[in-house]
Specification:
Elements: E1 6-9, H1 22-32, H2 39-54, H3 64-75, H4 87-113, E2 118-122, H5 128-134, E3 143-146, H6 147-150, H7 157-167, E4 174-178, H8 181-190, E5 194-198, E6 213-215, H9 221-230
Parallel strand pairs: 1-2, 1-4, 2-3, 4-5, 5-6
Length: 231
Amino acid sequence: MPIIEAVLFDFGGTLDADGIRWATRFHEAYRLAGGTADLPSFEVVFRESDRRLREQPGIGRLGFRAMVDLQADLLGPLLPDGGQVSAQRMADRFHAEALAMVGRNSVLLARLAERWPLGIISNFTGNLARCLEELHLLQHFGVVLDSAVVGREKPDPGLFELALASLRSMPGGTWMVGDNPEADIRPALSLGMSGCWLTQRTRPAPPGLMPTARIASLLELEPALEARCRH
């Protein structure tokens, strides 16, 4: 069994939540703020807000909180009851929960970074490094690949190959940790990397997907890595 040489992470849903997508978390914040749309309807609107977010002038300069506020503002006019739902309340809830999770995970990342080079591969909006800096996470990572900056999106294997080259690690010794089975785990496995899927325990795996490890909390990653080191 190859030794572990490096560990790569997704960002959204992985470092700021235990495998729960932004759309789902924004929907929960929306409902708590008084919204009535169900999740499937909300997801359609959320995808459109994502598209508009990427096209916003100056998006590359925004930090995490400013981006969350902007996404909440973009959602309002798209929702059937957006005029009655406070975008500020929605953003406050989403941000507070993300911040708590990031704070917890930062302690873990600091320990991991003492043993292995760490990197991030994320489909993002050009401001990932700025967000990581604001969240006090940037110092843990030797490479940060933001799809909007690189010009490629996961599951493009080129992003993973670029991360491997940047960290000077071989596929067989590199772990990819993420919540999206098709964007994070399957392409990593196809390159010979280990894939650690962060997801709810009851979620069925997509056909043909056999992750190296499956965890329901990022706190379970360290024991999974330790177990692999002992084999």
